[in-house]
């Protein structure tokens, strides 16, 4: 049963925003998305706090040491997500494989969807889908639980395929679009260049500023960075406070 309420979806005109990556499948680019999003936020001179809940493979904190580790094996630790809003207007929480239910349970257990109004808080749930049935199914499960009570951002990760035929022809997409979901594409980065960044634990921003990165590779990164920035710019109303 889809949960639907009478008022329209949020439009992003709130004073604070929680951005939560909520998809179960591992290796679909959750941390990769968060790093690109953080680089974009820094270009906007945005003040934010980022949390990394992945206790087994903390990719976000490796590339972005300012991220705070969040041990979600103890569900009460999730309450820490709200504390930074006393001083910050934006909080980002990376996802972790097989833990989507923990985040959604926490949202329901704290009645956050009802409390967000008094808190002046908008919530964006980020769903990363690939050309497979698993991520599309998980996206459908998330929207069935939450309905139109948040802003939805679907990130079509194209590292395996430039097409997203399964998602685009799915019932999950119909439901998401019904609730005002917005979509962006996250294209694949050149393989040797991606491997080089991984080996050096280097963000795109640092690579662009480093003479250790070959000029031609810096040009490739610059083009990639501009393209993904345009994607983020197109949905800035649900990515900024």
- Spans where pLDDT lies below 50 across 5 or more residues: 1-14
**How do the SSEs run, as a string of H and E?**
EHEHEEHHEHEHHEHHH
CATH-defined topology of the largest domain: Rossmann fold
The helix/strand class is: alpha/beta
CATH architecture of the largest domain: 3-Layer(aba) Sandwich
CATH superfamily of the largest domain: P-loop containing nucleotide triphosphate hydrolases
Based on CA atoms alone, the radius of gyration comes out at 17 Å
**Spatial sequence of strands, sheet with the most strands:** 3-2-4-1-5-6-7
Shape: globular
Give the biggest sheet.
7 strands, parallel
**pLDDT averaged residue by residue:** 86
Which CATH first-tier class of the largest domain would you pick? Alpha Beta
Can you count the beta strands? 7
Percent strand equals: 15-25%
Total separate domains: 2
Q: Given the structure, what is the number of helices?
A: 10
Ends distance:
31 Å
Task: Outline the structure in words.
- With 241 residues, the chain is α/β, with parallel strands linked by helices.
- The chain has 2 domains: 173 residues, P-loop containing nucleotide triphosphate hydrolases (Rossmann fold); 47 residues, no CATH class.
- It is 40% helix and 16% strand.
- The chain has a 7-stranded parallel sheet with strand order 3-2-4-1-5-6-7, sandwiched between helices.
- Helix 5 runs parallel beside helix 7.
- The longest helix has 19 residues.
- It is globular and about 50 Å long.
Task: Summarize the topology.
Blueprint: E1 16-21, H1 30-43, E2 49-52, H2 59-63, E3 68-69, E4 90-93, H3 100-109, H4 112-119, E5 121-129, H5 133-146, E6 151-158, H6 165-168, H7 171-178, E7 182-187, H8 191-200, H9 204-208, H10 215-233
Parallel strand pairs: 1-4, 1-5, 2-3, 2-4, 5-6, 6-7
Helix pairs in contact: 5-7
């Amino acid at each position: 049963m889809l949960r639907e309420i009478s008022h329209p979806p949020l439009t992003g005109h709130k004073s604070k925003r929680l951005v939560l990556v909520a998809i179960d499948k591992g290796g679909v680019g959750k941390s990769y998305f968060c790093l690109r999003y953080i680089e974009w936020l820094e270009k906007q001179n945005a003040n934010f706090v980022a949390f990394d809940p992945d206790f087994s493979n903390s990719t976000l904190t490796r590339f972005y040491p300012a991220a705070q580790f969040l041990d979600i094996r103890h569900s009460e630790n999730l309450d820490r997500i709200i504390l930074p809003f006393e001083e910050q207007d934006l909080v980002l929480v990376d996802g972790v494989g097989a833990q989507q239910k923990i985040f959604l349970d926490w949202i329901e257990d704290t009645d956050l969807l009802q409390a967000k109004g008094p808190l002046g808080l908008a919530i964006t749930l980020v769903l990363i889908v690939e050309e497979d049935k698993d991520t599309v199914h998980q996206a459908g499960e998330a929207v069935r639980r939450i309905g139109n009570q948040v802003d939805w951002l679907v990130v079509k990760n194209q590292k395996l395929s430039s097409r997203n035929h399964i998602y685009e022809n799915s019932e999950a997409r119909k439901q998401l679009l019904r609730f005002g979901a917005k979509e962006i594409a996250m294209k694949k980065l050149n393989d040797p260049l991606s491997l080089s960044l991984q080996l050096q634990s280097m963000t795109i921003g640092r690579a662009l500023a480093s003479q250790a990165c070959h000029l031609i590779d810096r040009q490739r990164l610059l083009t990639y960075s501009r393209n993904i920035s345009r994607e983020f710019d197109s949905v800035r109303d649900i990515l900024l406070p």
